[in-house]
């Protein structure tokens, strides 16, 4: 690999008359940790779906792990990208046992369908659940978990196949303050791990940028407002243009803040 895990050139996605993404240019290197920020409807989920090899661009080209979407085997490619989102959670049957759900991710499945898993698979699945603080839930049906527990199980699942790219769509949505801060701490630890995959986390809030994240992509109305290293991109001008109101942007230690000006 040349170091680039994601490369989008002039990417557009259309549905009927709606342009969900327009002329998106974006590259992610293997050692980078990105946050994608923007208001509701900005196109963040659509962008992540392209990055996860689940949506093909209608215009332009997208390379995921050096494979061009539309030419590569998308099923194989999807199994090499870790992806956690509420859309993934919605497709998981309530009855799926948590440990089975995690280990089945090595095959790109959302539960067990009669495949045989080895001791190594079980060991890795248990270690990931333990790492994300949810090993006590391994035998529970997914449908019985709280929102915070689900989020952590989904991240563990997304890491199961040892991906080179990890995509998390709004991992902090629906969490209480303690749950959000716990997630921030765990994501900061992941960001700091040199063996961790390239990370892309979608959020609506600059307060949810974990310490150690390096880059930001700001989106509005399907277009990129700005992208690059955090310090250069998170200016008051850029963040105000992204969210469509005058904002004061600040830093409190390793965390970012934004308030209406
Ligand atoms: N199939 C579709 N047909 C028409 N418009 C669509 C379709 N799917 C999504 N959209 C629109 O595309 C826009 C971008 O949607 P997307 O879910 O990518 O935004 P988002 O930034 O993730 O939003 P949110 O923060 O609210 O989750 C929205 O205005 C949405 O209504």
What does this protein structure show overall?
With 261 residues, this protein is an alpha/beta fold. The chain folds into 2 domains: 175 residues, P-loop containing nucleotide triphosphate hydrolases (Rossmann fold); 67 residues, no CATH class. Helix content is 30%, strand content 30%. The chain is built from 9 helices and 12 strands. The strands form 3 sheets. Strands 6-7-8-3-9-10 form a 6-stranded mixed β-sheet, with helices on both faces. It has a 4-stranded antiparallel β-sheet with strand order 2-1-4-5, covered by helices on one side. A two-stranded antiparallel ribbon has the order 11-12. Strand 7, helix 7 and strand 8 form a beta-alpha-beta unit. Helix 5 crosses helix 6. Adenosine-5'-triphosphate binds next to strand 2 and helix 1.
